[in-house]
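To the wet lab folks,

You asked to see what we're planning to order before we commit. Fair enough. Below is the target structure as tokens, and below that is the sequence we designed to fit it. If anything looks off to you, flag it before the synthesis order goes out.
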């Protein structure tokens, strides 16, 4: 799985703003990353990489013990957005983890 990489021209201060202004992208990346990790029996998965000048770098990773909580968060977001196919994907994975 190729991990998306985003440049933050304003540096790490831009991280929180990126997450809040790109919620659909972030939740879709979380769902696809967890799906991939579970299919490949991985203990952790990198969702996205960020980098900025001055050698700054940050990787958002989800550990296996956080898959369930992350999927519940995805489910809540997709329900709010009425993206029911994504909700079904989340529920299917949640059921596998229970």
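Sequence we intend to order:
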């Amino acid at each position: 799985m190729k991990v998306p990489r985003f440049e933050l021209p304003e540096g790490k201060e831009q991280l929180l703003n990126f997450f809040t202004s790109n919620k659909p992208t972030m939740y879709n990346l979380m769902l696809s990353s967890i799906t991939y990790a579970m299919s490949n029996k991985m203990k952790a998965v990198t969702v996205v990489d960020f980098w900025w000048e001055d050698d700054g770098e940050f990787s958002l990773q989800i550990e296996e013990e956080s898959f369930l909580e992350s999927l519940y968060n995805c489910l809540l977001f997709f329900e709010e957005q009425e993206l029911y196919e994504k909700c079904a994907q989340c529920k299917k994975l949640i059921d596998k983890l229970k």
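Structural context that might help your review: The chain has a mean pLDDT of 95. The radius of gyration is 14 Å.

Thanks,
Computational group
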